[in-house]
Amino acid sequence: MNPLGVHALVWAGDLTPESTRKVISQSKQAGFDLVELSLHGPKVMDLALTRDLLQEYGLQLGCSRGLTFAADVSSEDPDCVARGIALLEEGVNVTAALGGKYFGGILYGAMAKYPGPLSAKGRQNAVDAVKRMADYALTKGVTLGLEVVNRYETNHLNTALQALEMLDKVDAPNVVVHLDTYHMNIEEADFMQPVLACGKRLGYVHIGESNRGYLGSGTVDFAQFFKALTLIDYQGVITFESFSSTVVNEDLSNALAIWRNLWDDGMNLAVHAREYMANGLHAAAMAHSHH
Predict the structure, then answer these.
(1) How far apart are the C-alpha atoms of 175 and 250, rounded to whole Å?
(2) I need a labelling partner for 3 at 20 to 30 A (CA). Which of 26, 132, 203, 238 fits?
(3) Is 90 among the catalytic positions?
């Protein structure tokens, strides 16, 4: 069975010691194998405490972040690129310090709505930066995941095919594609072809509903997606993501445009999501084995 994960923003909007304890204990209580920590503002994190709590509760860890316009590896300004590289390096270091093996997200540019298309120079800068980070991450035993996100959160990788193209250019063994059903629902033609195109290069998955709320409450064709994962024999992590105005992260909530309250009870939401994912994967596996 795939390790099933949950994003920390289901539980808390920051990673103060009190919030971190809540995030990790609740993730375990809801039955998950992994917790994904968003490194937007890791300055307040207590790394030793977090590592201890992960071990105490027996949870695996994924880390994620997006860059900003002020620290953007796809910029044409070398100083801006350098600031982006510094954030990526920090992310790799935090991930490794916590005993994690995966650092993903929008590692190739700012997580924002760009005012225009990406330039050729910016694209090359991003490839160079990710390649450099991949070399560094390899020494720390960390895999980098390039998350494919919608046009309002990047002007770079909006489809799986674009991500695969970047993987070819970066050409590093520890860089993978990270697909997210919420973004696929906006940008891809369906939920099957992108997964099949990635094959063994799919390294991490986010499960999010079309409205970012309860799974099954929107338009995402999860049956097709789970079938596709079964067809490529995907063994990796599958992490549930959902956002509501109930839980606010200063940096992330506005960037993700979380204006509405889609839920109040994170535990109810998370337990439902875990069951929904497990059942969906099981059904797809059963159907596949009967062929």
Answers:
(1) 29
(2) 132
(3) no
